[in-house]
Amino acid sequence: MYRALRTFLLPGARCWDTDSERSYQDLFERLDTNKDGKVDVAELRAGLKAMGIFRLGAAQKIVSSGDQNEDGCLDFNEFSKYLKDHEKKLRLTFKSLDRNNDGHIDALEIQQSLAELGIDISQENAQKILQRFELRYHALAGVMDIDGTMMVDWNEWREHFLLYPAQSLQEIIRYWKHSSVLDIGDSLAIPDEFTEEEKSSDRWWKHLVAGAAAGAVSRTGTAPLDRMKVFMQVHSSKSNRISLVGGFRQMIVEGGLGSLWRGNGINVLKIAPETAIKFMAYEQYKKLLSSKGEKIQTHQRFLAGSLAGATAQTAIYPMEVLKTRLTLRKTGQYSGMFDCAKKILKNEGVKAFYKGYVPNLVGIIPYAGIDLAVYESLKGAWLSYHPKDSANPGVMVLVGCGTVSSTCGQLASYPLALVRTRMQAQASLDASVQTSMTGLIKKILAKDGFLGLYRGILPNFMKVIPAVSISYVVYEYMKTGLGISN
């Protein structure tokens, strides 16, 4: 089906002349489904979807770029001018990759170009990129006798990126790159990577702002499930079983419907400082761990990410304690965040703001490591089975991989998260009993068994898919609004 639609929409695309008005006219007429002489965002979006271009905002970006009279549509003159300008930019990008000017891009050229952008890949991985690109192109063109040279020529490059609004090499690299914006309320993953070009412009902070906004909306949307998780982590046991329905009923009876969002304010508030600290710390740790002039290796990147996460958590950890206390509070216990902080400081001292710090710190490594490893493994497995679609795995594939990897990371680190929450809540529950991390683990195992370490895992799993989906959609819309959609 995909192959038939692509052939229909782009007949003979690999043989186009850049200045051929007839070729543009044929494509325009096929995209103009209502035959009104204009292509609007909806028509273009349908055409892009038929070609496997699923990026949110791609159609809007093309129309906005080519719409000279600002009527929200492209007539034929605007459409053809956009394609001509776009091809010129694609030609420059192709030439920047084609270092020996032989009219083809090979694996070594891919590897060298990515290295200059701060992205270190092996020769083998560079060959895989070209192999998948070549297989996809030949399958779409109906050519079966691939010569095995694993090179991409200008026709292949143009045919693939003609109606994709990526123009520069940096944008095309981001097209292939995973962006870690999937916020599930536990920001323990390795920070996003930015190229030198992005860091020298305003793109990096716009990405961070978009990610923070996505996290805020995502956490607010799933706050009731997050509160239920914390409620079950602290109060549920073999002798006091709390079901999902029973727990929600209990919270609503005690504090009304609005009580389901207790603790969400500070949970959203801590996103910005945590993201900023993690990003800055990550850049510094990468410099410290890699020799000057050498590219950072995968294990160094993972270590830098874990240390950055630990640094950010250390700085904002008192907010984590406040979030837990506010989430568990009863009606009238605290008048707000500052009142809660004042009472903790007065009754328990400064040390109370770092209760549960050790299990929280230890939990970063299994979470970040497993999340990253599972994501790359799933994406690699998908690409190996779908080589023709490797240049654009699609939103659902990436979100699916991110959802599963985040879930696996949580499974590994959840017992430590539960112990952290119990320790944060200890003083407010029973001031006479202050158990250490190991003591609390032994107590839970003795009282509730191994499954006791996974109390509250159900609402935690339930929030993953909506949290990931909400954060992804909001992130993409925010990027479009901030002018960084690609």
Automatic annotation (TrEMBL):
PROSITE patterns: EF_HAND_1, EF_HAND_2, SOLCAR
Reaction it catalyzes: dAMP(in) + ADP(out) + H(+)(out) = dAMP(out) + ADP(in) + H(+)(in); phosphate(in) + ATP(out) + 2 H(+)(out) = phosphate(out) + ATP(in) + 2 H(+)(in); ADP(out) + diphosphate(in) = ADP(in) + diphosphate(out); Mg(2+)(out) + phosphate(in) + ATP(out) = Mg(2+)(in) + phosphate(out) + ATP(in)
The keyword Mitochondrion is annotated on this UniProt entry: yes
Family: Belongs to the mitochondrial carrier (TC 2.A.29) family.
Domain (EF-hand) ranges: 19-54, 85-120
Name of the protein in its database record: Solute carrier family 25 member 24
This protein's UniProt keywords: Antiport, Calcium, Membrane, Metal-binding, Mitochondrion, Mitochondrion inner membrane, Repeat, Transmembrane, Transmembrane helix, Transport
Membrane topology qualifier: Multi-pass membrane protein
